[in-house]
Amino acid sequence: MPQAMEVSSATNRMARPLGEATVRALELLRDLDDCFDWDIKLAIDAALAAPQATFPPPRD
Fold it and tell me: Structure pTM?
């Protein structure tokens, strides 16, 4: 089963914009957060809101 850190790490590295299927899959996982002992709701919300990949950090 996905863990919060695994989902967060993977989505932070994804190029933006996220594809429709990826967004839908993340929304489904977020909806399941209450059913399992995961804590991924905030990580998924942050990933969906990010305008660009957040890892690795951009270089100056």
Answer: 0.70
